[in-house]
Design a protein that fits this description.
By secondary structure, the protein is an alpha/beta fold. It has seven helices and six strands, in the order E-H-E-E-E-H-H-E-H-H-E-H-H.
Length: about 170
């Protein structure tokens, strides 16, 4: 077994938390110990040999707590393998194309360059109108986002298996 992995995430309505949980489950099934928790509950990174960091994306932005975590922990993150994911676009097709090539907030480029993540991916997200408020519903309509759960669980599991293989070797 390789190093213990932290799967840290920031979510607004829970869809990104469910993605993080799936990644943790796949890592565990592959024999890689993983802790899954919100970024604001992470005390330190000392006991982790690798980190998977994810954030829900809203209007082209990461959750504030994910951005704060990345900035505050950049030095420690640079000392271990890191994988980054953003979840957000809904609809059919390639999530990177749906996000118009967006991979992460440009304001985080200095930290991303320092960390040198193994991989940065954009995953399909989910929009549950029952959890949204009026302004959010209006914004979703305005940008024409598909109001659905577009998460591709097979793609998520496949990516997590790749991470498990890299960490174990």
């Amino acid at each position: 077994m390789g190093a213990k992995v932290l799967v840290a995430y920031a979510t607004k309505y829970g869809a990104t938390a469910e993605i993080a949980q799936k990644i943790g489950e796949v890592l565990d099934q592959a024999g890689v110990a993983a802790d899954v928790m919100p970024v604001d509950q992470v005390k330190d990174l000392d006991s982790y040999g690798a980190v998977v960091l994810g954030s829900g994306v809203y209007i082209g932005r990461w959750r504030k707590e994910a951005s704060r975590f990345l900035k505050a922990k950049a030095k420690q993150l640079a000392e271990r393998p890191v994988w980054i994911f953003s979840s957000g676009p809904t609809g059919k097709g390639d999530p990177v194309e749906l996000a118009k090539g967006w991979g992460f907030p440009k304001s985080l480029k200095p930290q991303i360059d320092r960390i040198q993540p193994r991989e940065i991916v954009v995953l399909h997200g989910a929009i549950d109108p029952g959890k949204m408020k009026g302004l959010e519903k209006w914004m979703i309509e305005k940008v024409g986002a598909a109001v659905e759960d577009s998460r591709d669980w097979e793609a998520i599991a496949s990516w997590a298996k790749e991470i498990a293989s890299a960490v174990a070797s």
